[in-house]
Specification:
- The structure is a single chain.
- The protein is α+β, with helices and mostly antiparallel strands.
- The protein has three helices and four strands; from the N terminus they run E-E-E-H-E-H-H.
- The strands form two sheets. Strands 1-2 form a two-stranded antiparallel sheet. Strands 3-4 form a two-stranded parallel ribbon.
- The N and C termini lie far apart (44 Å).
Amino acid sequence: MFNKNIKINNKVISKDAPNFVIAETSVNHGGNIEIAKKLIALAILAKADAVKFQTFKADSSILRENKKAPYQSKTSNSIET
């Protein structure tokens, strides 16, 4: 059971505190800093307490024999794997 209090800036996270909302952007910024900034602004408007970004290196986590999803085929170069 979670029994500790954590403080991030002026927000306390504990079992008795209101929810701490994290806006998950995933990789929807596509590596574009301007899009990332817009996602942060939208998270602020939505009153999120934090914004989470993630990135990864496809070469180390994607099998080359996997086929692209339909949206990936439409938006990426045909020689990319």
